[in-house]
Amino acid sequence: MTPVDEVEYEELAARLGEDGLTILDVRSPAEYAGDAGAACDPRQGHVPGAVNLDVQELVALSPEELHERLGPPPGTGVVAYCHSGSRSALAVEVLRAHGYEARNYAGSWHEWSRRHPE
């Protein structure tokens, strides 16, 4: 059984483009752009529609700065991912502390790059 704070691939794929949901890639800008990444992944890039905010930057932001960078206000649904779910787990804790309804896509890019065609 998946913990309530985690999102599975099927749910995330079905919710792409949904109003009121922000998909947050907390990897480095180079990983997000597809210029860097793990050799074990069949391709590089990011989940369609995701916004990028490196977890190292995210943890240093005040609540006001986070809202400014992320866009939607606290209370909004956010699904965070990274390469394998560890950086995004930290991001979820920070987002929740700032009032966001955050969940972790633990499969992250490692799973997405294998299961999603583009």
Short summary of the structure?
This protein is an alpha/beta fold and 118 residues long. The chain has helices spanning 9-15, 29-33, 55-58, 63-70, 86-97, 108-115; strands at residues 21-25, 51-52, 77-81, 101-104.
Tags for this model:
118 residues, alpha/beta, Oxidized Rhodanese, domain 1, four-stranded parallel sheet, 37% helix, 14% strand, globular
Written overview of the protein:
With 118 residues, the protein is α/β, with parallel strands linked by helices. The chain has one domain: 3-Layer(aba) Sandwich (Oxidized Rhodanese, domain 1). It is built from six helices and four strands. The protein has helices spanning 9-15, 29-33, 55-58, 63-70, 86-97, 108-115; strands at residues 21-25, 51-52, 77-81, 101-104. The protein has a four-stranded parallel β-sheet with strand order 2-1-3-4, with helices on one face. Strand 1, helix 2 (29-33) and strand 2 form a beta-alpha-beta unit. The longest helix has 12 residues, at 86-97. The mean pLDDT is 92.
Unreliable stretches covering 5 or more consecutive residues:
none
CATH homologous superfamily assignment: Rhodanese-like domain
- What's the tally of helices? 6
User: Could you say what the CATH topology is called?
Assistant: Oxidized Rhodanese, domain 1
Strand order in the largest sheet = 2-1-3-4
Number of strand segments: 4
User: Could you tell me the strand content as a percent range?
Assistant: 5-15%
Largest sheet: 4 strands, parallel
How do the helices and strands line up, and which of them pair or pack?
Blueprint (H helix, E strand, L loop, with lengths): L8 H7 L5 E5 L3 H5 L17 E2 L2 H4 L4 H8 L6 E5 L4 H12 L3 E4 L3 H8 L3
Parallel strand pairs: 1-2, 1-3, 3-4
